[in-house]
Specification:
Elements (H helix, E strand, L loop, with lengths): L9 E6 L6 E6 L11 E2 L2 E2 H4 L1 H4 L3 E7 L16 H19 L8 E6 L2 H18 L3 H9 E7 L8 H14 L6 H9 L2 H18 L7 E7 L3 E3 L2 E4 L4 H4 L6 E4 L15 H29 L2 E2 L12 E2 L1 E3 L11 E3 L5 H7 L17
Parallel strand pairs: 2-5, 2-6, 6-7, 7-8, 8-11
Antiparallel strand pairs: 1-5, 3-4, 9-10, 12-13, 14-15
Helix pairs in contact: 3-4, 4-5, 4-8, 6-7
Protein name: DUF676 domain-containing protein
InterPro entries: AB_hydrolase_fold (IPR029058), SERAC1 (IPR052374)
Keywords: Endoplasmic reticulum, Membrane, Mitochondrion
Length: about 350
């Protein structure tokens, strides 16, 4: 799939309801296609089945040119996996900022095979951007990424030999020779994956420390061996390789290529995956409602104003640059929530007191 038509790369929107509350983004794997990867017969399940299960989700699918040497890369193309990740990030930013109300939606990624590494590389780049705080749009994608479903994605950490073994499995799937020389070449080309295998869990650990930003993950693994020309070549990504420490794993009764293709809503494999996605969407919907409730009375949490701001504030603060008040933003006086003020700052005589209530403004 080296010379893809323009209509097979980038993003395609499969479903976009007006009341969408979450974005679900599908990312295919090695030699995949943004639609064919997810299609069994004539059923493109993210388009024909999932909207009924999760009616308030915008469903997107991303396509890119995925050759094995874009992952196990030689020095001449060492940044190819990063290029795929950058394209995914840039395209998603563009889609989410075309309409203002979509920019803050929570994101669920569904990635098959090596597409999971593209997602992980995206998170590595986003983590770096988060540290330097120089790309606010990119950081918004990082902040909004809340759930990831990995379907047959290898997680080998810093072990170069294991990454090379995974590469050999993928070469076998596409009928390429896997001589000792090729295996050595794959091991030498695993440097980027080794770095990624360390950086991604670090990013997850960082996010886990914040209750409302923790990223939930489920790793799915194939139960059946793959075959080429009628000959079994074993499991491409066995359970032990698909596991990510501290996150749940679930099995799918299919081989590596079939684990992401579902014919109808009665398909047991579809139900396994769809139930996870539906649960996540429900959780994120409830969180969104809670956040709206917190701000509906005019109360804005400290997190909206930066770590240096103390106490609860009322009204809306329009920041210019930094979120610290010292940066010279504009304070728009909103209607004070009188009931809250009375309940939290009563004078000894029983009369409401606002003195000192807005200290620091």
């Amino acid at each position: 799939m080296s010379n893809l038509d323009s209509d097979r790369t980038g993003f395609a929107t499969l479903c976009s309801p007006k009341d969408a509350l979450v974005d679900i983004v599908f990312v295919h794997g090695l030699r995949g296609d943004r639609k064919e990867t997810w299609t069994e017969g004539t059923t493109l399940w993210p388009e024909s089945l999932l909207p009924e299960k999760i009616p308030q989700a915008r469903i997107l699918t991303f396509g890119y040119d995925a050759d094995i040497y874009h992952f196990w890369s030689m020095p001449a193309s060492a940044n190819t996996i990063k290029n795929h990740a950058d394209s995914l990030t840039a395209g998603l930013i563009g889609l989410r900022h075309e309409e203002e109300q979509t920019a803050a939606r929570p994101i669920i990624f569904v990635a098959h095979s090596l597409g999971g590494l593209v997602c992980a590389a995206t998170k590595q780049a986003l983590s770096n951007a988060e540290d330097c705080l120089q790309q606010p749009h990119t950081k918004s994608i990082s902040d909004c990424t809340r759930r990831i479903a990995f379907l047959g994605t290898p997680h080998q950490g810093s072990n170069k030999a294991q990454w090379a073994e995974s590469g050999k499995n993928f070469l076998s799937l596409f009928s390429r020779k896997t001589t000792g020389g090729v295996l050595k070449e794959l091991e030498q080309g695993s440097d980027t994956l080794v770095k990624l295998g360390v950086a991604f869990p670090t990013w997850l650990s960082h996010r886990a420390g914040k209750p409302k930003t923790k990223v939930e993950i489920v790793c799915f693994f194939e139960e059946l061996s793959s075959s080429v020309g009628g000959t079994s070549i074993g499991k491409i990504v066995p359970e032990e390789s698909a596991r990510l420490l501290d996150y749940p794993t679930l099995s799918i009764h299919a081989d590596h290529c079939g684990m992401c293709k579902f014919r109808d809503e009665k398909d047991g494999n579809y139900r396994t995956v769809a139930e996870v996605l539906a649960r996540w969407a429900k959780e994120l919907k409830e969180e969104t409602k809670e956040e709206e409730t917190e701000t509906s009375g005019g109360i804005v949490s400290n997190s909206k104003f930066g770590d240096n701001n103390q106490g609860q504030q009322f009204g809306v603060y329009e920041s210019k640059g930094s979120t610290n008040f010292a940066s010279g933003g504009t304070w728009n006086q909103g209607k004070v929530n009188e009931r809250f003020a009375m309940e939290t700052n009563l004078h000894a005589s029983g009369q409401p007191q606002l003195e000192g209530f807005l200290d620091g403004v």
